[in-house]
Design a protein that fits this description.
The protein is of the alpha/beta class. The chain contains twelve helices and 27 strands. Strand 13 and strand 14 form a beta hairpin. The protein starts with a helix and ends with a strand.
Length: about 475
């Protein structure tokens, strides 16, 4: 490879107005990619993470919790479009619940409700700041305009995530796709949080406003509500950085994990894309690696600001090489490489970083329509403080590819989600349309070859034997 690909990519980013720090981060990763860096974290080089403090065991009084929240800001990663579910706008604008009165609530509505409830309960200012992408910013800010009391004086409601060119797999030059030039670009992964924070000046603005801590999470994870107990634990720990970890369940077949590097005893992160194919089985073994990463992070803003200033926003995070096609919906379109990094990988950057074990209620992400069905169902109840509280153990839902897009999913559940409180699992093969007041029980299965369709009548029961 020559320098041509990197120079073309840098020129493209500068012309598009991408922040200099993001161009520098991309350049560093490009050189690693060019050198054949895989980004793999091999199992032989790490040990499992053990001995974590448990959220459930914390003894924090209300005054401590309120004091910690008074010094905390909430940052939500909101750059995702939900393309894997057929969406073309911010995933956070997707309907996730309805109130008893029939009001439709998006992820964003629930997040705002959680923040406002925490403010009312504790008196904290609790700023909410979103990291948007160039494709989610306008719609998101329009949706937030209806909440006149949300903004905190002197602080922005959002800042912009950066973007970078997709690279042709054969030449590592920026791909050209005249059919839809927007597909020539991709987000740099959530590790872009750091150069984006540096370029926007948000960390300094939060410090100047008297804040000391920040809790960062994905906007599609409604479990990551403001939590005074964890805030107080983090403040008392003196750690610069902390990650929330959950015990694995059978549903957790993907996702990042923290491990301990044998070479120096330092905690590092291993994403799915950084797991060598030969190590996949052992990485997923809940007996060896008990925890997975929720992507809920806590930062000491003073330490973060100092590190961003020292590095110019260019933290030395590991490379994630992501192979795709330029058009995700067209497997025959040119193969590309997307250079990415993980926000949680900064655990290795901050000396003294730590982690805490949290309950499953802190991790309720929606990556597929399978997850969406669960959150819309009666397995969860939306409380007055906008938390989703499980009323039963969440069953494992597996829908066929027919339900992959939100449009197809909604059409097949037009009468509302079935009751899942008495279900241990729901596996749907083929194409089924659900009527009203359907109840799923036990390990339920609906079988039909792909391409065939069926309907579940109003008031029916679905069991291991099908429709009863």
């Amino acid at each position: 490879m020559s320098d041509r690909g990197l120079e073309l990519a840098r020129d493209k980013m500068r012309t598009a107005g991408v922040a200099p720090a993001a161009v520098d981060v991309f350049s560093r990763f490009y050189r690693l990619l060019e050198q054949g860096e895989s980004g793999y974290v091999r199992e032989d080089d790490v040990e499992p993470l053990t001995g974590l403090t448990r959220h459930a065991d914390l003894a924090i009084d209300d005054a401590e919790a309120s004091d910690a929240l008074a010094r905390t800001a909430i940052i939500k990663l909101n750059g995702g479009l939900g393309t894997s579910m057929g969406m073309d706008r911010a995933k956070s604008l997707l309907e996730v619940r309805r109130t008893a009165e029939g009001e439709r609530l998006s992820f964003l509505d629930v997040i705002v409700g959680q923040v406002r409830a925490a403010r009312a309960a504790t008196g904290a200012r609790l700023p909410l700041v979103l990291m948007n992408s160039f494709r989610t910013q306008d719609d998101t800010l329009a949706a937030l305009s209806g909440y006149g009391d949300l903004a905190v004086d002197g602080l922005p409601l959002d800042f912009l995530q950066n973007r970078e060119p997709k690279l042709r797999a054969d030449t590592l030059e920026p791909v050209e796709w005249p059919a839809d030039p927007t597909l020539e670009w991709c987000p740099p992964g959530h590790g872009d949080l750091y150069p984006a924070l540096h370029a926007s000046g948000v960390v300094r603005a939060l410090l100047d406003a008297g804040l000391r801590y920040a809790c960062v999470s994905n906007s599609d994870n409604l479990g990551a509500a403001p939590d005074g107990e964890i805030a107080a634990w983090f403040a008392a720990s003196g750690a610069p950085y902390a990650a929330e970890m959950c015990l694995k369940t059978p549903a957790d077949v993907k996702g990042g994990q923290l491990v301990v590097r044998r070479a120096d005893g330092r905690i590092i992160q291993r994403e799915t894309a950084q797991t060598h194919p030969d190590d996949v089985d052992v990485s997923l073994d809940p007996e060896r690696h008990r925890y997975f990463h929720t992507n809920n992070l806590w930062f000491d803003l003073e330490v973060l600001a100092a590190e961003l200033e020292r590095t110019g926003g260019v933290l030395e995070l590991p490379l994630i090489r992501n192979a795709k096609t330029v058009d995700p919906t067209d497997a025959d379109s040119p193969e590309v490489v997307q250079i990415e990094s993980a926000m949680g990988a900064a655990v290795a950057v901050f000396e003294g970083a730590t982690a805490i074990e949290v309950g499953r209620e802190r991790f309720l992400p929606v990556k597929k329509t399978d997850d969406l069905l669960l959150l819309r169902s009666d397995v969860y109840e939306l409380t007055d403080d906008y938390r989703l509280v499980a009323q039963a153990e969440a069953p494992l839902v597996r829908l066929s590819k027919t339900y992959k897009t939100v449009g197809a999913f909604d059409a097949r559940f037009a009468s509302g989600p079935p009751s899942l409180r008495d279900a241990r699992g729901l596996a749907v093969d083929g194409d089924w349309t659900f009527g009203a007041d359907v109840k799923v029980e036990g390990d339920a299965v609906l079988r039909a070859p792909d391409g065939e369709s069926g309907s579940v009548p109003d008031g029916a029961r679905v069991t291991a034997d099908g429709i009863a």
